[in-house]
Amino acid sequence: MAALSLRDRDAIVTKEGLIFRVFGYSHPSNAYICDAEYSSSQIFKSNNPKAPRSRGQQVFYKFYEDEGFRFVRAFYPQYLIFHEMLGKDVVGVNRSDIVAVKKPGERLKELMSKTPQDELVAALHNALDYVMKHSNLSADDFGVFGSLLHDFYHPEFSDLDFVVYSREKFSKLHQVLRDLYDDECSLFTNEFETDEAVKRKSWRFHNYSPEEYVWHQRRKLIYSLFRNEKRIIKAEFEPVKEWKEIRGEYDSKTKVLPKGWVKIFARVTEDYDAPFIPSVYGIAPSNVLHGAKETSEATRIISYMEEFRMQACRDEKVYVEGNLEEVITPEGSFYQISLTYCPRYYEQTLKVVS
Known about the structure:
Elements: E1 11-13, E2 18-22, E3 31-40, E4 52-55, E5 58-62, H1 67-75, E6 80-83, E7 88-94, E8 100-102, H2 104-112, H3 119-133, E9 142-144, H4 147-150, E10 160-165, H5 167-182, E11 188-190, H6 210-220, E12 223-227, E13 232-240, E14 255-273, E15 279-290, E16 298-303, E17 317-329, E18 332-339, E19 349-352
Parallel strand pairs: 10-13, 16-18
Antiparallel strand pairs: 1-2, 1-8, 2-3, 3-5, 3-7, 4-5, 6-7, 9-10, 11-12, 12-13, 14-15, 14-17, 15-16, 17-18, 17-19
């Protein structure tokens, strides 16, 4: 297959009926590091009542937490690629195994170009028109992901999942959402204005309470409730880098070595890439509670977890718990704390403490 240029939240489809989300912006030359998102019911079935998605007679199931990784490892190891920097296998798709690609921006243009045929697409038109009316953003600045991207949404129950492209456009949208939430007449409200979103949620994080989660999510502003004509719909706005902002860090000559579990307090010195995946925070450790002596030399946190995007701002004090890594490059080395899929997933923490 011809070379493809893909970025975070673009989707890859394989011949078996697996759908992968391209994960981040740093990939080897012949493959894409991914997250397994959905599977055809012909090869996978889930007991999770939230998992089924349908498109006509065809049914797909959504993977939750590390379910996709475990399924791929057990049954489709061809979708594990060797990560030269980490020295281990990760979920990914070789370019030669890509059957189809779906891009959020292209799908949104398709949906906006047609007269809505159902309730959800009508709500999509209304929500995007409302945002554009209150800003100088255009439809070209957005895309859709999730069930809308793959055309197996439920008109009466599915959410609106938007992508907004570029750091500058996301910053503008962020301010627009802030203003809309402050306007009592607005059709948009902050989903986390109350704790309703976590009331019935099974909580598994060890060092991060539901109350702390709501506080952090509320101030991110990207999780909305849109008051449409027939129902209130969740609307999410996820930032994705535009092409000129992307600087891939994948380098086969660079090695990432694990140094053990750490617990520290630190001050955030940089939050420039906090809205994206991976989220990167510059830090200055202030108090090492547990970990190797090199922990005090850590200069950044790198998080691949959705929960910890936009989690902290510059000059805030944070508590961090995760894996210390030494990154050895041809030019030198540095230490970072990584938050990612791992056996101690729910012990990982990044939260503001002041």
